[in-house]
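User: Sequence in, structure out. Go.
Assistant: Echoing your sequence, followed by the structure tokens.
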Amino acid sequence: MTRTIKNNKLILIISFLFVLVSCDSKRIFDEYTTISSNKWKANDPISFHFEVSDTLAKRNLFINIRNNNNYSFSNLFLITKMSFPDGQKMIDTLEYDMADNTGKFLGQGFSEIKENKLFYKENITFPTLGEYAFEVRHAMRKNGDVNGVHALEGITDVGFRIEKIE
């Protein structure tokens, strides 16, 4: 009898994990890079490479940022570069809020780590089949400083995600 209960528990746990993993039906690409020592160097861009095999479907693109309590800013400036298979490049400068007016970090998470899913491009189609590259680097500086922040503390992971639009 106990063996049957243990087997049923195991089946239930495996089923739950399968459902949990398969619930992300929108995901096309989702990858993270961990920042060593939680200090993102300004001259150290993070790159992601992905294949596009559908030029008709619309997609949403996100930059995912995980930060901890060592992050000392209320916003985040990023410079992105999307490289197309035909050699074209698209460069953007973006600003995102990372904390509300009271200084409380935005994002999801119960612990010190907060995860922010930041819109990069909404409702787009990729014009060309092939391999794309996406590169992101921070462009933070302290108020009044001409030089940027060399090592941005408190960023633990940077990710890039592409989702289907249903």
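User: And one key feature?
Assistant: The radius of gyration is 19 Å.
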